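Journal club side-thread
Mid-discussion, someone asked how the predicted structure for our own chain would compare to the paper's figures. Pasting it here so we can look after the session.
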Amino acid sequence: MVSLRQLLGRGADVQRVAQDLGLEASARLAARFLGEKLDAERGAFAGWQVVVLEAVLERMCAYEAPDLPGVVESGALDCALGFIGGMPDESRAVLGDLLAVFEFGPLVLGVGNGNKKGKRARFTRLDAAAQDAYLASWENSGLAARRAAFRGLKSVCMMGYWTRSETWGAIGYSFEGNPGVPARYFVAKDGE
């Protein structure tokens, strides 16, 4: 049997093995290889998985518009975590597994960090350009499961970012301008 270390550099083999094992087993192997621990309660995120989610949010919501806040300023991470917290247990567990596999992927698939002469690194240690390339490889993958996983992760990120009121002005949205928003959600302005 081929060890995980022997598979490094053989991306097609790693993808096949990961598909055969399934997401949960792949996530456990990835965490072990990274020297990280998964939370004992399935569906709960370890601190390093939250860091991975924040890094993905930063790249997916990196807009070059001066009137859009950054992920940290907007509170998007806390919002995304709140949204995730309301998911069914199994959905949270799948997302946590995906974050583990996502963090580990660049090491096995040979994604290098441009600033380190092609040296492999986990996702959170890649520079912005390498992170963007890695995200694009998931979005445009020939594997339907990988594209679907990307879309799920993107949905969580977009939910976390675009539901923040700090982002609305840039896209011309406001509660007052939306007749479908119940009045109880309006924030009283000074003097009213």
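Post-session note: Residues 188-192 have pLDDT under 50 and may be disordered.
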